[in-house]
């Protein structure tokens, strides 16, 4: 079995939990496969993998030899990798493996995910969620978001017991919020949580607070689903999400800060009811939710499709129309991606993969950056290109809007 998780922290936490449940370590019955962390053995029956890794796996072995089922967890997030992996899995099922089982899982499945699309049953589990009280604090656009979140955290610490999980859109806001929380009780531990932290730092952030202590975990949406932080019974939600938007004129993705969707708000609220009755403080007014989108827009609608176009060529498809999609790639960005790859000699004019295209696909990088590395290597500058890639790239961010 393959269990596909949206992030490395979610994959690692799921694998650790399942392995511990049967009294084993990761790498025995339950394995883990993510970038820079592979722990599997001949005894492994269930591999927990990240979405990007699954795409690489199925591209290397379209028939998924020896795999009985693929389970896509937290599918409501609709990442580009998840949509691509599902399209490949559905194609493999229809052409090569009619016995392959495909399962999509989420507490808030997307609205366009219909039973008719898959001709498959819907299984619902009520789970063991505890009741969560919701308190609306409102949002003041003239004040800094970090100041309002810090004040809400102090309010939560004063009014409730247990640990606190606060959601902010990005790392900069997290760091400023941590600085603004100010003096707290001696038994309160404040810790950030975001994707750029090391696995050790992430594990420390989601670990239970020591006996007699409380934690305040200030996180991005990395903590929105698929992980449970023991002891958290209070959530503070700033109400914003940071999403990538591809800018064709610049050739890069910029980050926009937008109001989160109702499905994401429900996911965040649910974090307070994982281990007992909880409370969720929301930094908006209840009436404002009528203007929230029901679910987040699929990443495929706003992303750079160059990597997808390269992967489809590796799959043997010259057009997205040859596969089944919940949300097909839009024509204009798809055509632009194909033209760029053809101009780079990664694809032929007919859309077939070239030798260069195969080399680009073998590198765990976006095609534009992989091309930079290969071109630099031809000039004896591979190390310089790798050093440039290791520098955090500047992204363009728009401020929160009310």
Topology:
Elements: E1 2-5, H1 8-21, E2 30-34, E3 37-39, E4 46-50, H2 51-60, E5 69-72, H3 80-95, E6 101-104, H4 115-118, E7 132-136, H5 145-159, E8 163-167, H6 171-180, E9 188-193, H7 199-206, E10 214-219, E11 232-237, E12 240-247, E13 252-259, H8 262-270, E14 278-282, H9 306-315, H10 331-343, H11 355-362, H12 367-378, H13 382-390, E15 397-398
Parallel strand pairs: 1-4, 1-5, 2-4, 5-6, 7-14, 8-10, 8-11, 9-10, 11-14, 13-15
Antiparallel strand pairs: 2-3, 12-13
Helix pairs in contact: 2-3, 5-6, 9-10, 9-11, 12-13
Could you characterize what this model shows?
This protein is α/β, with parallel strands linked by helices. It is 34% helix and 19% strand. It has 13 helices and 15 strands. The strands form 3 sheets. A 6-stranded mixed beta sheet has the order 3-2-4-1-5-6, sandwiched between helices. Strands 7-14-11-8-10-9 form a 6-stranded parallel beta sheet, with helices on both faces. Strand 2 and strand 3 (37-39) form a beta hairpin. Helix 2 (51-60) runs parallel beside helix 3 and helix 12 packs antiparallel against helix 13 (382-390). Residues 394-399 have low confidence and may be disordered.
Record keyword descriptors for this entry.
402 residues, 34% helix, alpha/beta
What is shown here, in short?
The chain has 402 residues and is α/β, with parallel strands linked by helices. It has helices spanning 8-21, 51-60, 80-95, 115-118, 145-159, 171-180, 199-206, 262-270, 306-315, 331-343, 355-362, 367-378, 382-390; strands spanning 2-5, 30-34, 37-39, 46-50, 69-72, 101-104, 132-136, 163-167, 188-193, 214-219, 232-237, 240-247, 252-259, 278-282, 397-398.
């Amino acid at each position: 079995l393959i269990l596909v998780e949206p992030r490395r922290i979610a994959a690692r936490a799921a694998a650790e939990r399942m392995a511990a449940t049967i009294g084993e370590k990761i790498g025995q019955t339950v394995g883990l496969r993510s970038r820079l962390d592979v722990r599997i053995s001949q005894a492994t029956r269930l591999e927990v993998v990240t979405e990007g890794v699954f795409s690489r796996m199925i591209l290397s072995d379209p028939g998924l030899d020896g795999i009985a089922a693929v389970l896509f967890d937290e599918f409501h997030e609709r990442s580009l990798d998840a949509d691509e992996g599902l399209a490949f899995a559905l194609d493999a099922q229809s052409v090569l493996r009619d016995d392959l089982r495909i399962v999509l899982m989420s507490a808030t499945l997307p609205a366009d995910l219909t039973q008719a699309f898959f001709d498959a049953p819907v299984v619902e589990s009520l789970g063991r969620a505890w009741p969560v009280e919701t308190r609306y604090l409102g949002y003041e656009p003239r004040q800094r978001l970090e100041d309002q979140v810090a004040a809400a955290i102090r309010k939560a610490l004063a009014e409730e017991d247990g640990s606190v999980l606060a959601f902010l859109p990005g790392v900069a806001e997290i760091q400023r919020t941590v600085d603004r929380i100010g003096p707290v009780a001696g038994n309160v531990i404040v810790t950030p949580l975001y994707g750029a932290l090391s696995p050790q730092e992430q594990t420390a952030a989601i670990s239970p607070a020591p006996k007699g202590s409380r934690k305040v975990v200030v996180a991005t949406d990395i903590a929105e689903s698929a992980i449970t932080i023991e002891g958290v019974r209070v959530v503070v939600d700033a109400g914003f999400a940071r999403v990538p938007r591809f800018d064709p004129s610049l050739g890069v993705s910029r980050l926009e800060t937008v109001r989160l969707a109702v499905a994401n708000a429900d996911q965040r609220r649910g974090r307070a009811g994982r281990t007992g009755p909880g409370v969720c403080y929301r930094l908006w007014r209840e009436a404002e939710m009528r203007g929230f989108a029901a679910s987040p827009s699929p990443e495929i609608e706003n992303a750079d499709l160059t990597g997808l176009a390269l992967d489809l060529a590796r799959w043997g498809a010259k057009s997205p129309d040859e596969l089944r999609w919940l949300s097909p790639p839009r024509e204009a960005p798809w055509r632009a991606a194909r033209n760029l790859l053809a101009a780079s000699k990664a694809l032929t004019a007919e859309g077939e993969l070239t030798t260069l295209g195969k080399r680009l696909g073998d590198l765990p990088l976006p095609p534009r950056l992989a091309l930079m590395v290969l071109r630099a290597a031809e000039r004896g500058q591979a190390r310089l290109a790798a050093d440039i890639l290791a520098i955090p790239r500047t992204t363009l961010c728009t401020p929160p809007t009310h």
